Amino acid sequence: MKSPRRTTLCFMIIVIYSSQATLNLNLESIVHPSILRGHEPAGEEPPRHKRAVASSSPAVDEHTVDIEISFENASFLEPIKAHLNSLSFPIQVNSTDQVINILSIEVTTVCRPAGNEIWCSCETGYRWPQESCLPHLTCQDHGGSPAGNHCSCLKGLPPKGPFCQLRGDVTLRMSVRLNVGFQEDLRNSSSALYRSYKTDLEMAFWKGYRILPGFKMVTVTGFRPGSVVVTYEVTTTTSSPELMRKANEQVLQNLNQTYKMDYNSFQAVTSNETKFSVIPEIIFEGDTVSLVCENEVPSSNVSWYHVERRSDVQNSSRFWIYTSVLNNMTSLSRFTIYNITQGDAGEYICKLTLDIFEYEARKKINVTPIRISANEEMQVMCNSPVSLNCCSDIHVNWSKIEWKQEGKISIPGNSETDTDPRCSKYTLHANEVQCLSGSAGTPVVYTCEFTSAHGARGSKNIQVTFTSVANLIITPDPISVSEGQSLSIKCTSDVNSYDEVYWNTSAGIKIHKRFYTTRRCPNGTESVLTVKTATREWNGTYYCIFRYKNSYRVATKDVTVHPLPLESNIMVDPLEAVVPLRGSRHLKCCIEDDEDYKVTFQMDSWFFPAAKEVNGKQVCYKYDFTANSVFQCPKHVDVFCHFTNAVNNSVRSTSMKLNLVPEMTIMCQDPVIGVGEPGRVIQKLCQFSDIPSSPGGPAGGIITYECVGSQWKVKRNNCISAPINSLLQLAKALIKSPTQDKKLATYLKDLSISTGKVENEVSSFPGSLGAIINILDLLSTVPTQVNSEMMTHVLSTVNVILDKPILSTWKVLQQQQTNQSSQLLDSVERFSRALQSEDGTSLCISQTNVQMKGMVIRSGHPKSYKQSFVFADSDLWGNVAIDNFQLENLQTDSSIVTVAFPTLKTIIAQEVQGENFTNSLVMTTTVTHNITMPFSISMTFKNNNPLGGLPQCVFWNFNLANHTGGWDNSGCYVKEVNEDSVSCSCDHLTSFSILMSPDSPDPGSLLKILLDIISYIGLCFSILSLAACLVVEAVVWKSVTKNRTSYMRHTCIVNIAASLLVADIWFIVAAAIDDHHYILNETACVATTFFIHFFYLSVFFWMLTLGLMLFYRLVFILHDTSRSTQKAIAFSLGYGCPLVISVITVGATQPQEVYTRKNACWLNWEDTKALLAFIIPALIIVVVNVTITVVVITKILRPSIGDKPSKQEKSSLFQISKSIGVLTPLLGLTWGFGLATVFPGSNAVFHIVFTLLNAFQGLFILLFGCLWDQKVQEALLNKFSLSRWSSQLSKSTSLGSSTPVFSMSSPISRRFNNLFGKTAAPKGPPGNDGNLVSGGTSTV
């Protein structure tokens, strides 16, 4: 190769030709002489390489020749390129031996001056070989590459070796469209059509693309619809767009025209020409990431696409794309993502478009969140060094790791390097100055922040709580009390940070929280142990314990409880006694305690010593009282006995009431009971009475005697058997015990066993039954969890006292004491709420007279709550259901428990008077945790229905009847009533049952069926009548509204009829909803209620408008207003007032969902008294209209000035009655009969009368408001051309002697004429106007 001598620019071209002979190239035949005039080739190299191409034609040789051309004027380069691009290939060159075809000519290398150097750069698709790209030979800032890599620019031509060479092979994925119809055989690669297309197209492609440098092969890969789209692949080196266009033209020329190839549809995609790099390689969330696309194609048309988001990337606050072309040779596109997130991860496509070429590169990036592990909370004792550690999950060299702190106190530390590059250590040491006792427990947040080299930040907070050693101070004074007194121990700490504060006994048993309170103070913490009634169990040492993590601070206090009987444990005899004057009586006080007490008897201000007597476990102190002459008769004396212990604390017993009477009045005498006069009633402890004693201790309770004649008779026996009394005393002691929750399980077991053994005694002694109820009530207040075994013992006890043989005992007990059944129900509910299952999710306990079923809510529990209860002996059953949606709102591990009682309803019926009971279950459902939102529950009861009436769903409200309890239906309604069952729904939990209401007829009764028939038939007549009324008014409107009064009257009638018609239609809709016993659609029911309320009110207010119009026309005769003013007032009153009332009613009640009734689409009464919004306006309007009616009648009866009296006025009373009969339906008095039906217990007659009048009110309006009007009758007759009838009617009206009251001469008639706008005048002479009347009368 020769170098040009005075070269300003040189370029090399490559010539590809095919021949079977030696090259003999005439360059002048290729390059136009005018272009190269004055310039010669600097040199010519032999062929640098050759290639052989196989084809269906005879074998030929292909050769590639490099030609170097030098210029002094650089402006010649572009014209030469343009000329070469305009050539059509192949070009045949004449030769004596063979035909030579020049396939292509391309510029490969261009050398330009650059300052003092010559830069030789490669054209598109070419590059310098690796051995020429030495670092000191490559151009600066362009194509620089390390040694051993390809480059695109060198400083001068290499001294040896080839020029720029073709790049490596690329596979072009190409497509072109054939404008022919697509056939399905083109989808089948084995079909003849497919093979024919493939062969023809590949031949044309081969002939066209063989001119491409480095061309190797072309293959058709398939066809797809869109006319016919041919997809094929071309394997070659990178080619310029100009050369590719020429090749495409050759393809078009070599293809049969029947294929109709579209030249403008060629597309090519290449994927191995673009360098795609991502910085950094490991991407953290928050990094600034650069995606760089480099392609040696000089085009800035680069787009970026995010595959996962299926959208092109556009510049924004976080995305920035910058594309440039370097030295008109290389495209460089940089896509920068600031503060990258997880959503930015995925595959990105960089696509460069140049002509038909698309250079595409893909790269998938993963965004890794910075995860830092550390202990989120730490507790640090002051004066103890501690190290905080943070470690990242990924091994990476972090740019920076910082520690920060935030808190009320400042305790800095030192950051230290860790042997593990992923970790950082921070050492703290808080001294007493930094960590004062007042600030102990204050948290300080330390944050370790990791920063990557590209800006990503990850942090972790560690909350460190510094604590100092608590100093405890406990009540310093020694604590010494006697039984029955209160005691208090205060324990204070100088720090207010703790995890737990609790108290222990000397035996290590934790005292229940109900006995102590703990609160934080500004300078520490205070815990106070308080015992209201100390017993001997409180004697011992108590430990106040503050626990903070694993650190414990303990303070102790000794408590001494001296023996002293409680007032309730001192049994006195007698409670009451009669002592005859100069007689005596033995007094005694007994206890179950043989301690050394000083006992005295007190009477007024005197004290007397007592004698001690021991009888087994019982110790009694006695005194003989003598009534001497000092006492006056009658006199009442209260005697007490005082017990004083060793520390001089004393307790006084209940009083023994002695009644001193003359001896002569004594009639009853008994050595045990004592003496008394007739009618005397005294009480005596059962253990000191004549009731036979039983083993196991003294009996309890009180027995009441009455002196009848000369014998003492038992008036009331409330005695408690000895075993039950013993359990009652233990229960009273247990609730005062510091370890009551630990003893409860054993006690419940003993109660169940003892109750089962003394069942016969329970049935004989109402007092024993009451004692068991009191025991259950006491034990249910112990604040502890109840397991299934404990609940089994509770229900076993309940099963005994609810047995059918004991029902008679319940009746006696309820005569003596009220509230016992409510107390029992409340106790069972408390036990149910405390129930917690140890294992499994189901709970089931079954007894004869009580059953319990339930379940525990587990995490992700899929089941709904459905329980069934069957009591075969009682022929009762019931079901409970709670849907899954309600259960999702409950806390995990909550227990839902339902307890069913078959006999409790009968017991309550004996206690609650005035209720109508049906024999049904009582089912109580509870949840262990409090429920903060409405809770819907559905229940089904067997309905034996012995009393008839409508069933009511009720619950037991413990707050009614002065907290003694009663049935309440708030929040409950009947869903469905069948022959043998009643379905209920309630929005809360407690004990439920059903009652029978006497206020409404039974659904299956004859009265209810009769009322339904009357209602539906009457409503049909009413709707038809109202429709007929509107039709009649429309027909006669012009004839009857010629004056203002008539116009306003008929306007009122039309609106009354229209309002009542719409109201009746909505009434039928409401009845259709109510008659189906499913849950009412709330929205439909609210809408129905609103419209019924509105339109019925409109009927009343239009009636009021009619009455006020009558009053106005009668009283204000000389005053006149326009028709438009009257209409505006009428419509405002008729529709405006009802709308305001209806909207206010629904707005005030519907947000609380108490607008409608639970079981009917009508205004609520039980919860909000919304029905008053209808009743009050209706009553007021009825009163006003009745008043107007009286005024109208009075005015009619009062003759005007100048009116001559007439004998016919004597019959006016009949006419007044007739007027009242007309006005009453129009003025709304029909609804007066309905008022009686609102009150409970109303007679069936009121229901029938109201139903008849209300249902046929439309017919009344048609008859009396429309058709009775004579002017309407005449208008109808004239409308239908019945002139003879009309004339006859007029004649009879004029001459008939039966209606003289309506003659024009009558004062009453004239008043009506003035009132209703009659304008007709007599046709006779003026002087005879009193004797003649017009035949055409006019009425309103």
TrEMBL record:
Organism: Equus przewalskii (Przewalski's horse)
Domain G-protein coupled receptors family 2 profile: from-to ranges: 1011-1269
Localization per record: Cell membrane
Sequence similarity: Belongs to the G-protein coupled receptor 2 family. Adhesion G-protein coupled receptor (ADGR) subfamily.
Name used for this protein in its record: Adhesion G protein-coupled receptor F5 isoform X8
Pfam families cross-referenced by the UniProt entry: 7tm_2, ADGRF3_N, GPS, ig, Ig_3, SEA
Signal peptide: 1-21
Basic and acidic residues composition-biased segments: 38-47
